[in-house]
Write a structure and sequence with these properties.
heterotrimer; A mainly alpha (about 90); B alpha/beta (about 400); C alpha/beta (about 350); A: about 90 residues; mainly alpha; Non-ribosomal Peptide Synthetase Peptidyl Carrier Protein, Chain A; 4 helices; C: about 350 residues; alpha/beta; Peroxisomal Thiolase, Chain A, domain 1; 10-stranded mixed sheet; about 20% strand; globular
Chain lengths: ~90, ~400, ~350
């Protein structure tokens, strides 16, 4: 889980082209939206693409995305839960 | 500067017909053009319906007189613009006319660019150059203008889904400023993998047939097509044998300045566009008899546009409908296609239905028309367009 | 309708941005691709807004915001842009993604920002400008159409001001494609010697230029834009001469009133023939300068030329790097920019001192 969280932080910084924010600046439980990272609805779509490209997980509407993307930890939990199901 | 501008010609091609007469038949009969994707080569053809023009590129080539290897966007433009130009009667009369072609597009020749890149990405020296030379939207316009024999003014506008409305506004202003006598104005866009995948990645495409202004709507279907009107000054209109269809009495463009891809929930942009157009035409909201809605079927658009309509028209709601339930969203062409539909609605006294509307949106006290009706006393029709980047335009067409 | 230029800002392959000196230290390039000299954008654009912006968006937004700041205008009455290619980098990125990922979900931001009106929209969004917003994509007449729209807008509205801009970018992909089309010199050439080569091909350029135009004068105006015209594929030099004649007649101008011509020579011998034909006829005897050795050839290069003209008029000075022969003896009051892009669109922009 810790490794997954660390990976995700790096992937988020790259996918969302975050400037002046390093992976270590993002807290495991820090809210991704409305929490100082300055993310908006286009970033939800970018994160949905990230999940598809890196983890082959599909989210088909932005509202579901917002639940999954509450924090890096909720993203990691979503990935872990759905990966297990797929296996 | 406040001289009226008249509409003396119209031409359209879309998923519901290859000309104005065929389109009108489909609108009267309530026959949608949305179907399984058949002509565009895409992995999404089983999942995402769209309203394609029901002709392959060879057939379009034969109809347009352009080579089959030319962008589909150009062929659609050629067919509709020529219909409008021929329909106006200006193509043969009055040789000293100062003429213009103002065409809008968002895709330009990108269908061919994609073919080019498929080879180019493997090796920089590959890819046929003839597939890339018409990438620019502007080169589609000049190609068609040359075929029409128009050369005093040729320009291209691209403001996403309101592009054609802005082209019609610009054409009208060129006439009002006495720079031109007649302008063919509107726009064109083919269905492409670029736009299909683009809107798909924004998660705004409905996997079923779209349901604009329905409580349970879940996105838009893309379409393709082209639509043009011929605008002339009063002097030119008086030289023609036939009466003009109508006058373009109002137009306005405003920016919602809220978000790159969505409009504000209060509908500020569409509200300003409609109010501005009304003010220009010296009309009050109750004077409008029919609104051709932008009505894409996305959550955001219909809520935002609906809110703007409520703010402006409550409690006197005109009849309204989204013809995107027939044609899909033809993007840069949509305001041109819908301008032609608006002109025909006025001319024939018709209100088109908003197809597949079952549960009206609970947020609003009004309901778009669900059945076709004849209304011979239509006087003023408003057509709305909203594009990416908050670009909102409204046009008002008025019977003479 | 004449428009007063209250401010003009360019980001170009020269040191034109945030630089009070006027082209006194020309940048030299020894290949066929001139690249804009970009500033540190963190001062010009809010860092939170910048992260997704491609190069052309950054160049344009920074120029636009600086232009508004210089003019002391927070929110203009209109924003009009002209770009032939639009946001090419994002377009190329999204197309490449579709092809390489075989239509699997790909980055939405590149798609959204590939839209041609992205720049006008981004400026509106950043300054919350809810007014008229339009974008022309008319190839080599894109900037001229934007100017025509601007001039009409100013005559339709009392005491109005607007932001008008020209922008195009080179991407790695576009440079390869345009090179394959044979547009550029095969042999390396210094841009500063562009007009001495007498060979085929030109050099590729790019840039963004923004202007704040008003219909009321103010003490700090740089210059005025008097008139703009475009001509589509004039059939021969005779037709072009007639069109130029009638353009000047409609503005009640004689050829002898023009103090300086800014010509679109680009170093390609065939392309430049028309300029020398005109200089041997209607333009005979009028001092002239070229500008494309500084910014390269691209469809909206007249944006750079108009920036140049505004500064020449304001400073009544032609930088040494532009002196290519006869220069005006008297004060420079009227400048005519004449350009054609690949002999498709020809254009005239008439500017004067205020």
């Amino acid at each position: 889980m810790d490794q997954l969280i660390a990976d995700l932080k790096g992937q988020i910084v790259v996918q969302l082209k975050l400037k002046n924010i390093k992976r270590e600046d993002i807290g495991d439980d820090q809210p991704l939206f409305g929490g100082g990272l300055g993310l908006d609805s286009l970033d939800v779509l970018e994160l949905i693409v990230l999940l598809k490209q890196k983890y082959n997980l599909r989210i088909s509407n932005p509202e579901d995305g917002l639940k999954v993307f509450q924090s890096v930890r909720t993203m990691a939990e979503f990935i872990t839960a759905n990966r297990v199901q797929n296996m | 500067m406040n001289d009226p501008v008249f509409i003396v010609g119209a031409g359209v091609i879309s998923g519901i017909g290859n000309n104005a007469a065929e389109s009108l038949d489909a609108l009267v009969e309530g026959k949608t053009g949305i179907d399984k994707i058949k002509y565009l080569r895409t992995n999404h053809s089983d999942l995402l319906p769209a309203a394609e023009v029901k002709l392959n590129n060879d057939e379009l080539s034969a109809m347009s007189g352009l080579a089959p290897a030319i962008s589909r966007t150009a062929m659609l433009s050629m067919i509709a613009a020529r219909e409008a130009w021929d329909n106006s009667g200006l193509n043969k009369n009055i040789p000293s006319l100062r003429t213009g072609f103002v065409s809008a597009s968002t895709t330009g020749g990108i269908d061919k660019t994609e073919e080019f890149l498929t080879h180019f990405l493997i090796d920089n020296n590959r890819g046929k150059l003839r597939n890339i030379i018409n990438h620019e939207c502007g080169s589609i316009t000049t190609m068609v203008a040359e075929k029409l024999g128009i050369r005093n003014h040729i320009s291209t506008i691209s403001t996403a889904c309101s592009s054609s409305a802005n082209a019609i506004m610009y054409g009208a202003r060129l006439i009002k400023h006495n720079m031109l006598d007649a302008v063919v104005a509107g726009g064109t866009d083919a269905l492409t993998r670029f736009t299909l995948n683009g809107f798909n990645t924004l998660l705004v495409l409905d996997g079923e047939y779209c349901r604009p202004f329905d409580q349970n709507r879940s996105g838009l279907n893309l379409g393709e097509g082209a639509g043009y009107v011929v605008l002339v000054s009063e002097r030119v209109a008086s030289l023609l044998k036939r009466d003009p269809y109508c006058a373009l009495t109002g137009y306005f463009n405003a920016n919602d300045a809220y978000h790159q891809t969505s409009t504000s929930m209060a509908g500020d942009g569409p509200y300003m566009a409609m109010s501005g157009a009304l003010e220009m035409s010296c009309l009050q909201p109750p004077d409008i008899d029919y609104i051709n809605l932008h009505g894409t079927g996305t959550q955001n658009n219909d809520s935002s546009e609906g809110a703007a309509i409520q703010r402006l028209f409550h409690p006197h709601y005109p009849k309204m409908s989204s013809t995107k339930s027939f044609t899909g969203h033809t993007l840069g062409a949509s305001a041109g296609v819908e301008a032609v539909f608006s002109v025909l609605a006025l001319h024939h006294g018709m209100i088109y239905p908003n197809l597949r509307l079952q549960t009206p949106m609970s947020a609003f006290p009004f309901v778009p028309e669900t059945a076709f009706s004849r209304q011979p006393d239509l006087k003023h029709v408003l057509s709305n367009s909203v594009g990416f980047g908050g670009n909102c335009s409204s046009l008002i067409f008025s019977k003479l | 309708m004449k428009a007063y230029i209250r401010s003009a800002i360019a980001i170009s392959p020269q040191k034109t941005f945030n630089n009070p000196a006027f082209l006194d230290d020309p940048a030299e390039y020894r290949n066929s691709r001139l690249t804009s000299i970009e500033p540190d954008y963190s001062e010009a654009i809010d860092p939170r807004s910048i992260r997704r912006m491609s190069r052309i968006i950054k160049m344009s937004v920074a120029s636009a915001l600086a232009c508004l700041k210089d003019a002391g205008i927070a929110n203009p009455d209109a924003i009009v842009t002209g770009t032939a290619y639009g946001c090419l980098e994002d377009t190329g990125l999204f197309l490449t993604n579709i092809i390489q990922e075989n239509e699997e979900p790909v980055t939405p931001v590149a798609f959204v920002q590939s839209t041609h009106n992205t720049i006008g929209a981004q400026i509106a969004l950043l300054i919350k400008c809810s007014r008229y917003n339009n974008t022309f994509v008319s190839g080599g007449a894109s900037f001229e159409n934007a100017l025509q729209d601007a001039l009409m807008f100013l005559s339709e509205n009392n005491a109005a001001n607007l932001l008008v801009g020209a922008m195009d970018e080179i991407t790695d992909m576009s440079h390869v494609v345009l090179s394959r089309l044979g547009l550029y010199k095969r042999q390396p050439v210094s841009n500063l010697n562009l007009f001495d080569t007498n060979s085929k091909g030109t050099i590729n350029g790019e840039g963004a230029a923004f202007f704040l135009l008003t219909n009321t004068s103010s003490p700090n105006d740089l210059a005025c834009i008097d008139a703009v015209a475009t001509f589509y594929k004039p059939e021969a030099a005779t037709e072009l001469r007639q069109l130029i004649d009638s353009f000047l007649v409609s503005g009640s101008i004689n050829y002898s009133d023009i103090d300086l011509l800014i010509l679109g020579n680009n170093g390609d011998s065939k392309n430049d023939e028309i300029y020398s034909q005109l200089q041997q006829s209607v333009f005979n005897g009028i001092p002239s300068i070229n500008y494309k050795h500084l910014c390269g050839e691209y469809p909206t290069s007249t944006g750079f030329a108009a920036w140049l003209a505004a500064n020449i008029i304001k400073q009544n000075n032609i930088p040494v790097v532009l002196n290519q022969g006869k220069i005006p003896k008297n004060k420079i009051n009227k400048i005519l920019i004449y350009n054609h892009y690949q002999n498709i669109y020809h254009s005239l922009i008439l500017m004067s001192s205020c």
